C-alpha cells in the first residue's frame, strides 16, 4: 500500500463512516473537510476512491459532490457496477410490491419512516420507542418471509431494515469494483452489519476496517468518522510523498 506504483482501491461506506449518524435521515452531511480530503485523494496517482452505500445514486452524489469519486450506490444496483437495464426494471417492479407490504408496518409503528429507493425499500426505526422494538422485529420477520419469493432479502443497518434484491450486497459491489479497477490492494471502511459482506469479500492482503462498535469480521477497527478522516489524512500524506 505504501510502495510507489501500488494501485489502491479506497472504498468507503457513507452513513456512520464519513457522515456522522444523525437523528433524522434527511440531515446527514459529510463535513466539508472530509469532502476536500476525498477530492484530493481522487487526484492522487494510483488511488481510486469509491463510495459503497445503501443510498441512491442521486442522494449519494448530492452528499458526496466529488466528481472523480466512483459511486456504487444502492448496494451496487446503481452507479459504476450497476446490472443490466432489464434486471433493474425487474427489481423496480419487485420493490413496488415490497413497499406495499411495508406500508401497514410503517403505519402500525409510529416513529418509523418508509423510504422507497426505486430498487430497494428501507424502513427506518430511529424514532420508535424501545418498548416497541420486539413487536417491530416480529413484523419485519413476517415481511421478510413474504419478500423472499419476490427475490428480496432484508439487510440490517443503523436503525434501518432494508429489503434488497437477493445477491446484491456490499460484498458483491466491492467485488465488482475490484474487477473493474484491478487494484493491488483494497481498503474498505464500514460501520454496520450491512458492511460485513464487504469485509468477507476482501483478501488477506486487503484492509477491512470496522468503524465503531459491533461484532465484525474486519481485522481492524477505528472508533468513528473522526478517526476515518485522520487515517485518510495520513494516507494522503503517505501517497503524496511517494510521487517523484
What does this structure look like?
- By secondary structure, this protein is an alpha/beta fold.
- It has helices at 32-42, 57-63, 85-108, 133-147, 170-181, 196-201, 225-242, and strands spanning 8-12, 47-52, 70-73, 78-79, 113-116, 121-124, 152-157, 160-165, 185-190, 207-211, 220-222.
- A 7-stranded mixed sheet has the order 4-3-2-1-9-10-11, with helices on both faces. A 4-stranded antiparallel sheet has the order 5-6-8-7.
- A hairpin with a 2-residue loop joins strand 7 and strand 8.
- Helix 1 runs parallel beside helix 7 (225-242) and helix 3 (85-108) runs antiparallel to helix 4 (133-147).
Question: In short, what is this structure?
Answer:
The chain has 7 helices and 11 strands. The protein is of the alpha/beta class and 244 residues long.
Shape: globular
Number of helices: 7
Order of helices and strands: EHEHEEHEEHEEHEHEEH
| Strand order, sheet with most strands | 4-3-2-1-9-10-11
Strand content: 15-25%
Relevant terms:
244 residues; alpha/beta; 7-stranded mixed sheet; 38% helix; globular
